[in-house]
What we know:
Number of helices: 13
CATH architecture of the largest domain: 3-Layer(aba) Sandwich
Number of strands: 21
Structural class: alpha/beta
Strand content: 15-25%
Largest sheet: 7 strands, mixed
CATH superfamily of the largest domain: Aldehyde Dehydrogenase, Chain A, domain 1
Radius of gyration: 23 Å
Helix content: 25-40%
Mean pLDDT: 97
Amino acid sequence: MAINVQLFIDGKWCNAKSGKTLDLINPATEEVIGKIAHAEQADLDLALQAAAKGLNIWSNTPAFERYLLMKKAANILRERVDDIAIKMTNEQGKPLAQAKGETLAGAEVIDWFAEEGRRIYGQIVPARELGVLQLQVKEPVGIVAAFTPWNFPINQIVRKLSAAIAAGCSIIIKAPEETPVSPAELIRAFIDAGIPASVINLVYGIPSEISNYLIPHPLISKISFTGSTSVGKLLAGLAGQHMKLATMELGGHAPVIVCEDADVGYAAKEMVICKYLNAGQVCVSPTRFLIHTNIYDEFIANFLKEARKVTVGNGTDKSIVMGPLANERRIPVLERLIQDALAKGARLLLGGKRIDRQGYFFEPTVLADVPITADIMSEEPFGPIALLNSFEKIDDAIAEANRLPYGLAAYAYTKSLAKATLLGQKIKAGMVTINHDGLALPEIHFGGIKDSGYGSEGGCEAINSYLQTKLVTQKAY
Length: 477
């Protein structure tokens, strides 16, 4: 049965005013499995009107009531996890276990921000004279426009949505056309929990048309974007022209430094899991491996051993570790990057090509001795490719880790406290995780520096970008 994915505007599921639709494709079968409503300006105007109404209602809803409704939404999401997971796998490709994990993690994010919404504290500033009361209070910024990608259809939305409504904002979400079903199910959980109609609005369409209309619109107060650095810079520039607040979570090219004293087997096993998660379509995916020369061959052997265990296929098969790429357009990019690296002297140790079968499947790939001149050493592959190189001095490894303009995530392995401290201090990234994969929990910072963006989507800082401070100073007379 074909899926009909509708817009959600002013508390109603609806088709686009024009009746236009886009195709929904299963990346494991290349079959069209449904249609997606294609929003245009008329639909966006309705969403803006609804969000303005929703802001008036929601910003005047007590924080404790917002908390209770959000907690209810999180529990509804948990109850529906099995149904949502199969829908996510069919539209995005990731294995069922990963889709289920993403959905349950989304419920945790909702819980976290629900609790944070109860702790939006202001401040009383001591006055210089008697009879004066100086209050600094936090208020919601207003209507938020959120733009999210397809690689984590729930995770990317739930952070923005939960922070916004915990702060008392209303929101318009431009969800990804490649993966529209699971975002719709996320929104459904909030609506079924009792969030007032018009507070949350959901649209799909041509990304540039929607962003170019919403960002400059006078009703929009803040944008939050997750996606590529190139697009992020354009949207940040547009937001800046119109004095809009912005949170930007952009691309990365994460280094992994494996020191001579590291537990090689442990590091290799953990990094294989992390590298091929979601077929490498992860902004924090480990990519540039920098391994001490004395353990280089040992690490390669261990990494290849674990990488060969990564089974590839339709994510609905419970034995599968890695599903297809989410769309076909990435395949020629990966092929170009691999061929360029090989032409410049890299060694292909595993994989390297599209799998000859129906679907957008690509082999888990390992390249070694990749010269710095190879395009892939500077261009984020965003696919299942690991780049392995050696180093002799830790300062050289740090220099390579910091070479690129990206600064999202970095990984390191060492048994030395001194080295761990040095790496934590010297690596220029928004997130550095040492001796484990410790990223993306709701309670900790998630965000980058340099060309990887600004602002945080996790931890206690995340809700602050959806709030503005107002001074109220009054004197009794």
